């Protein structure tokens, strides 16, 4: 499940310093409560990132399962693609930063290769537990996790972008046979 929406509005234009300010503010803002249609999954474990928005989502779901927090699920971090006092559209800052990440540019705090390694480490933990679980995480992270799952004999509702609060279900094809 992708975390609920963060209660934050990015500025439309910013320079690199303002981008960092907004990015840090986004990462610490509370979430907006969403209706969950009495979401009560039949699971044994709940995994969360260590970021507050996943923890708040978990609390709003009212689940009785104890949450296991891990930084292996944290969102892919980003920083401005360059240092500049020039104000550019915030969307441009985000797109180019993600392109740098995708192509493993060292300017970003984490390369795509490192993200994929982190995802595989997390999936090793889940597969070792061998039990149904709920994972509450983040958008870019999940977009990459889905690719890893599909490459490793899982089936599920894969698409490029998941909405906040959307449930994503995957099952190992090994269990289906």
Draw up the topology in text:
Layout: E1 13-14, H1 16-28, E2 45-48, H2 52-61, E3 67-69, E4 88-89, H3 90-102, H4 112-129, E5 133-136, H5 139-151, E6 154-156, E7 170-172, H6 173-176
Parallel strand pairs: 2-3, 2-5
Antiparallel strand pairs: 1-4, 6-7
Helix pairs in contact: 4-5
Helix content: 40-55%
Q: Could you say which structural class the secondary elements and strand pairing correspond to?
A: alpha/beta
Provide the gyration radius in Å.
17 Å
CATH fold topology: Rossmann fold
Low-pLDDT parts are: none
SSE order, one letter for each helix or strand: EHEHEEHHEHEEH
CATH architecture: 3-Layer(aba) Sandwich
CA-based shape: globular
End-to-end span in angstroms?
26 Å
| Highest CATH level, the class | Alpha Beta
The overall pLDDT, averaged over residues, is 93
Beta-strand portion reads 5-15%
**Physical arrangement of strands within the biggest beta sheet:** 3-2-5
Strand count, sense and closure of the main sheet? 3 strands, parallel
DSSP, total strands: 7
Structurally, the number of domains stands at: 1
Number of helices: 6
Task: Summarize, please.
The chain is an alpha/beta fold and 177 residues long. It has helices at 16-28, 52-61, 90-102, 112-129, 139-151, 173-176, and strands at 13-14, 45-48, 67-69, 88-89, 133-136, 154-156, 170-172.
């Amino acid at each position: 499940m992708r975390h609920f929406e963060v209660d934050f509005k990015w500025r439309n234009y910013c320079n690199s310093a303002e981008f960092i300010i907004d990015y840090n503010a986004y990462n610490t803002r509370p979430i907006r409560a969403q209706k969950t249609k009495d979401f009560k999954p039949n699971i044994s474990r709940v995994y969360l990132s260590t970021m507050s928005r996943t923890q708040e989502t978990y609390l709003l779901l009212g689940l009785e399962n104890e949450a296991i927090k891990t930084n292996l699920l944290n969102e892919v971090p980003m920083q401005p693609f360059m240092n500049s006092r020039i104000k550019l559209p915030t969307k441009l800052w985000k797109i180019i930063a993600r392109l740098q990440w995708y192509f493993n540019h060292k300017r970003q705090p984490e390369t795509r290769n490192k993200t994929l390694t982190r995802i595989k480490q997390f999936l090793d933990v889940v597969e070792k537990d061998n039990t149904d679980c709920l994972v509450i995480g983040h958008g870019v992270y999940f977009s990459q996790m889905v690719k890893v799952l599909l490459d490793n004999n899982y089936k599920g509702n894969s698409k490029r972008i998941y909405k906040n609060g959307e449930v994503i279900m995957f099952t190992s094809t090994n269990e289906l046979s």
